[in-house]
Amino acid sequence: MPRPGDGAPRAVTLLPGDGIGPLVTGAVEQVMEAMHAPVYFEKYDVHGDMTTVPAEVLESIRRNKVCLKGGLRTPVGGGVSSLNVQLRKELDLYASLVNCFNMVGVPTRHENVDIVVIRENTEGEYAGLEHEVVPGVVESLKVITKFCSERIAKYAFEYAYLNNRKKVTAVHKANIMKLADGLFLESCRNIATKYPGIKYNEIIVDNCCMQLVSKPEQFDVMVTPNLYGNLVANTAAGIAGGTGIMPGGNVGQGHAIFEQGASAGNVGTEKQVAQNKANPVALLLSSAMMLRHLQFPSFADRLETPSSGSTQEVTDAVIAALD
Amino acid sequence: MARRSLPFLRQTLRSPKPRESPPSAQSRRSVTYMPRPGDGAPRAVTLIPGDGIGPLVTAAVEQVMAAMRAPVFFEKYEVHGDMAAVPREVMESIRRNKVCIKGGLATPVGGGVSSLNVQLRKELDLYASLVYCFNLPGLPTRHENVDIVVIRENTEGEYAGLEHEVVPGVVESLKVITKFCSERIAKYAFEYAYLNNRKKVTAVHKANIMKLADGLFLESCREIATKYPGIKYDEIIVDNCCMQLVSKPEQFDVMVTPNLYGNLVANTAAGIAGGASFMPGGNVGQEHAIFEQGASAGNVGSRKLVEEKKANPVALLLSSAMMLRHLQFPSFADRLEMAVKRVVAEGRCRTMDLGGDATIQEVVEAIVAALH
User: Fold this and answer.
1) What sign does the dihedral A279-A284-A285-A290 (CA atoms) show?
2) Is B129 helix (H, G, I), strand (E, B) or coil?
3) Domains, chain B, ranges and CATH?
4) pTM of this prediction?
5) pLDDT digit string, tens, across residues A198-223
6) Tens-place pLDDT, residues B333-361
7) Residue A213: which of A143, A145, A115 has the closest Cα?
8) Which of A124, A215, A272, A294 has its CA 20 to 30 A from that of A37?
9) Greater confidence, A35 or B180?
10) Would an 8 Å CB–CB cutoff place B248 in contact with chain A?
11) What ipTM does this complex have?
């Protein structure tokens, strides 16, 4: 039962990005139009090889609070730091969420996959603090803080609580990195005591990888530091059918950015760009998450899941499937 | 001693794949090896049973070796994961024998005791960890065409063990990458590929984020790659790699990685190929070699496995076959491998990880019976 004025259109920042990014965001724009959804997009051109995210883009996101983006290709090696990481840090989007689940009609080798990976997004191995001590020796700092570990654990348990999930599993390597991952685990255990209705357990990350590929049904919600989260999310997305279809986003206290859930392939290959054959499902499902975030649940429900084809065909199929 | 170890290393590198003969045929290799007089002299091997299911699986190895009358005898030492350091006599024994086989050592999570597994590798400078993940006939998996060798840098990277609490609530952990270690692991990987007729080496990294550290690793790999023009070389970012492993594992051949990624990639690859309790592997350096279950997950097992004696010995048995080749006893290695593969193919190794109920003793007896 909406309140009067709830249908007022909302502005959303749109970043097409690199590679297949523009294709898949184009698909989202088409579908939103076809639904007459009350959103309109402020588009900005950002590319992975820019030095920083332009100030106007950040202002737009701060104003709109919500953003949808395609992948930004971070160059390997020297010089340019990742704009994806920069966005997350500047807006303090400390939680990255990927929902990996078996979709009807998508053939996979694994059944019963329904995993939500919640990954700390701002510190850990991605602190970006590296230096060359002497020529030929490089040190890279992995920073873990109680503050960040506690808030990501809190987010994970809160997510489980609100979404009727039964179990939260913390992924770590505290037998080797005793202080760093030990601090992470401590924070998780503290928060777990506040949610007695939700089961909590821990798993070492190498065993976790193996369990994911042999018995994925044992996992429900997983909370992890930054690097492990990246790998676990991509593995989970892979077993559930591929990162081209798993939705996700990055959320913080004030803002949210929605994008393809797991990072592998979100820029795609040149062939995909040339042949217009990118898979828009992940971004479409993420845009449905975005519609819920904006309090437009019925529009979110109307989005459907198509199967493979060229981007345009898939988009048309989605539009045709909308009532 | 260092020069003599090179042929040993080359023997290690030979992958434990079965020959194409069907399991029931006699080994055709008896004429290929012409021993020198005295080659049959028994060799001493250090044996560390370890924790959990470790003693069970190492006992399985001892039984099978005795049944084959293999020219090895074991010097057994008790080492447990909660000891402060590896006892000096054990280190001396390994240094003397050059070869060791061990079960898992359970490293306590959290404060105090550092990992003895890591300590062993660092003290003996076993800089390469090798896990061979492949589909075993008769072992049901969701993935076909898996034939991956993961070569992982074993001494530095995220496992440098250098952590400190800057201020209460803030911990820094140092990941150290050096040109020296990166070059030698890359060299080992390409040499392995070259000696075992492998077509491609893939470097796994995250150099888009850790530009200096993984950038240095990649640079070293690229340099070494130019020296092996006959072997294809490519690179893959680690998150994409994880996804590709679970969707299209057939694209990977030999993979070379820094320490942490190697741990995860090896366990994932072992998982898709049938489970870490089936995949052989070892740690090798210039002078010494320690053989153990390839990927680390589950090498200590659960209490239930220990109490009911239902551990799976296949990984350690295949690793001991690798060890026999390392010691220049290839025909024993062939016999052992064929027996193990036959038992697995005929479905007589239905241990708990396969959903079955067999005890380790039953499996060992089946393997001993299958030996010719």
Assistant:
1) positive
2) strand
3) 42-130+277-371 (3.40.718.10), 142-162+171-273 (3.40.718.10)
4) 0.81
5) 999 999 999 999 999 999 999 999 99
6) 889 999 999 999 888 777 877 778 888 88
7) A115
8) A272
9) B180
10) no
11) 0.75
